[in-house]
Amino acid sequence: MEKTLVEIDKAAAVLKVLGDKTRLTIIGLIKDGECCVCEFVEVLQMSQPSVSQHLRKLRDTGLVKERRRGQWIFYSLNQEHDAFSIVESVLELIPDQMDKLKELENKGLRICCD
Amino acid sequence: MEKTLVEIDKAAAVLKVLGDKTRLTIIGLIKDGECCVCEFVEVLQMSQPSVSQHLRKLRDTGLVKERRRGQWIFYSLNQEHDAFSIVESVLELIPDQMDKLKELENKGLRICCD
DNA sequence: TGTGTATATAAGGATATACTTATATACTAA
DNA sequence: TTAGTATATAAGTATATCCTTATATACACA
Q1: Chain B partners within 8 Å of A14 (Cβ)
Q2: How much is the average pLDDT of B85-107?
Q3: Does residue B45 fall inside a structural domain?
Q4: Is the CB of A56 under 7 A from strand C?
Q5: Which molecular-function annotations from GO does this UniProt entry contain (chains A, B) (predicted)?
Q6: Which domain holds residue A53?
Q7: What's the total number of domains in chain A?
Q8: How far from each other are the two terminal CA atoms of chain A, in whole angstroms?
Q9: For residue B112, what pLDDT band results from cuts at 50, 70 and 90?
Q10: For the segment A37-79, what is each residue's pLDDT rounded down to a tens digit?
Q11: Which stretches of B1-114 are DSSP H helices?
């Protein structure tokens, strides 16, 4: 997988979007799979519009992909992103968020659509 | 070199500081050595207070170190930072800034203090 | 000591950010 | 079609950010 150089402006834009606790947690939550908006709302304990707005920033920079599945929209990491190597190194450094998804599952709130 | 986990808040703070074109350029300029404030001012074509304020953010998060040498203060990367791996992956991705230092040297504006 | 140079800090203003509440859109199922 | 659920967008507001100009601090040298 070739690594392309990324202009400073673009790299700065990516880092700025990643530089927020909420969005970083979202990235951590979809490290190994996808989540839908209502799952983020539950895990993050934030309002739905607020979560939507954070997801929009992630989507606008191309860091995440979305996939509609019935009434749900699932978000996942865009591993094709030019700056994905940054995302990877961030994910290696921050604590795993999987326990939060486990907790969701235990509460019966995990959305599964396969 | 052990890689420590970094809390989400701290990682977000680091990414936020890196998420600015000016500061990212500064990081690029000191990739392989140190620069003093007046060199940044010349390369970045920005006011001295503005540069100082950017350097302060980088210093406050611990991403750079400073070293006074006579009347000059030299800044360099803090390779001991918990999140240095992020800095490294960013530096691998963005274009080299060394040409700007070469240009400074050609204009006789490079400060050397050894 | 006084003057000049390098850097930092303070204060103020324009713009960006991250919430809020209200509303619109898209899909599902009766 | 209508009602309900999931998500997005709009508008407003408090706060943060990044610049500016003015001033303070630290050092060098005569």
Answers
A1: 19
A2: 96
A3: yes
A4: no
A5: DNA binding; DNA-binding transcription factor activity
A6: 8-93
A7: 1
A8: 29
A9: low
A10: 999 999 999 999 999 999 999 999 999 999 999 999 999 999 9
A11: 8-18, 21-29, 37-44, 48-60, 84-93, 98-106
